[in-house]
Amino acid sequence: MKINATRLEQHFEAMSLIGKIGETGTCRPAHTALEKQGFELAASWMQEAGMTTRIDNFGNLIGTLKGKDPSQPVLMMGSHLDSQPYGGRFDGVAGVLCAIEVVTTLSENGIQPDRTIEVISFADEEGWRFNKGLFGSRGILGKLEEGELQRADKDGITREQALKDFGCDTGKFGESEYAKGRIFCFLELHIEQGPVLDIALKPVGIVTGISGPLWLTVTLKGMAGHAGSVPMPLRKDALLGAAEIVVALNKIATQVPGNPTVGTVGTMNVFPASRNIIAEEVTFTIDLRDIDLGRRHRYEKQLMEEIEAITQKHQLTYTISEDTNSEPRYCADWIKDIIRSNCEKQQLEAPELMSGPFHDALALSYACDYGMIFIRCKDGISHNPLEYASYEDLSIGAEVMYGTVLDILAKV
Ligand SMILES: [Zn+2]
To answer: Helix (H, G, I), strand (E, B), or coil: what is residue 325?
Structure first.
């Protein structure tokens, strides 16, 4: 191996101490002193790799390895160091530390690339503190939305205040934005956060794209009544209708075995929620994802037909609001080819798979070509202190990433 697996492991171990909870967990919220501590540690490694470092006005940590020709668009790599409140040691961290390892290895081999390389730890990828994620990666592309700075966390601290406390100048976002065409391509290594590679017994996977979620909120309205007296045929039971829709969504998402489609009802509110009242109103969310947008549209249509039929059967009325409707974003074929040839060099058979979860790469996909490398994670567990990826797999992933970067640098 060209990369230094021992050093990479030491970096993971050191980073896992910052915001450590329990034996193996992490709580490192965005724009906090803990994240700053993580940034300082990562920045020290970036500097050892020959990079200059800065924290921009969105709260991103950026390491720059200056190329011989700085006028060329930059090759960017990275992920995030913020974590879920009850998270693991690898989500996001893997992408930042492996990228630093790649640049350290370049420097150790005396390689100064023509184009500048940047490693970024994006601010607030996770999104739970202010209920909106991918903050830093959208920020550098000028894609923040109206009112985002006024969003407050559970303690009433606004994003604006948190950024100021972090040392950012929220009046100077423009200075931290990247001009169109400034980023040549983006690479992100991430743990899979699902079980596909673990089941296939493969350490590394090549991501085909990030699937677009459709998020709906459905409200069904029936009629409340005494659970002891209203005969079954006369009921307008909103919860019964909701239950049938949950089952229908499951059938729709699983109609073709092996397809990557996923459908989930994750929340449900029942009114008036009494054990002896027939439910009058039920509100629930639907999350439907697929890498094939045409198929997702077809399944959405099937779902609408089911909702119509089920509500008619139980004499319910319904409303549906669309909360998010994003399209899948595909990885660049030429980057996938380079990743694949680097897997082959290591005698790795790397499956191709889509990403259900978002990543910073989703934001970057609107600015440049991108590629992603997935690392096997045990039992697919993530957003949980039990999250685990082996150092061996992470080293293999970093080595694939190193070869990929060399090939990209040689290509153009
Ligand atoms: Zn992540």
So the answer is: strand
Q: How far is the CA of 394 from the centre of ligand 1 (A)?
A: 15
149 and 289 share a domain?
no
Cβ atoms of 28 and 18 within 8 Å: the answer is yes
- Boundary (domain end) residue, out of 294, 325, 356: 325
Residue 315 shares a structural domain with residue 362: no
Q: Where are the beta strands (DSSP E) in 165-280?
A: 183-191, 204-210, 212-221, 262-264, 268-271
Q: Tell how far the Cα of 79 is from the centroid of ligand 1, in angstroms.
A: 7
Q: Do residues 34 and 118 both lie within one domain?
A: yes
- The number of CA neighbours under 13 Å toward the Cβ of 220 is 33
Number of domains in the chain: 2
CATH code, 268: 3.30.70.360
Q: Are residues 347 and 303 in the same domain?
A: no
| The residue to which tokens 């459908």 are assigned | 263
**What is the Å distance from ligand 1's center to 392 Cα?**
20
Judge if 53 and 173 occupy the same domain: yes
Give the distance (Å) from ligand 1 centre to CA of residue 105: 24
Query: Ligand 1 centroid to 193 CA: how many Å?
Result: 9
pLDDT tens by residue, 112-164: 999 999 999 999 999 999 988 999 999 999 999 999 999 999 999 999 999 99
Last residue of a domain, which of 295, 325, 355?
325
Q: Which residues contact 344 (CB under 8 A, 6 or more apart)?
A: none
Domain extent for 296: 212-325
pLDDT tens digits, one per residue of 13-62: 999 999 999 999 999 999 999 999 999 999 999 999 999 999 999 999 99
Give the distance (Å) from ligand 1 centre to CA of residue 191.
8
- Give the Å distance between the CA of 217 and the centre of ligand 1: 25
Cα 93 to middle of ligand 1, angstroms: 8
If asked whether residues 360 and 316 sit together in one domain, one would say no
Whether the Cβ atoms of residue 79 and residue 95 lie closer than 8 Å to each other: yes
Q: How far apart are CA 146 and CA 135, in angstroms?
A: 13
Cα 289 to middle of ligand 1, angstroms:
18
**Are residues 49 and 78 both part of a single domain?**
yes
Centre of ligand 1 to C-alpha 364, Å, is 14
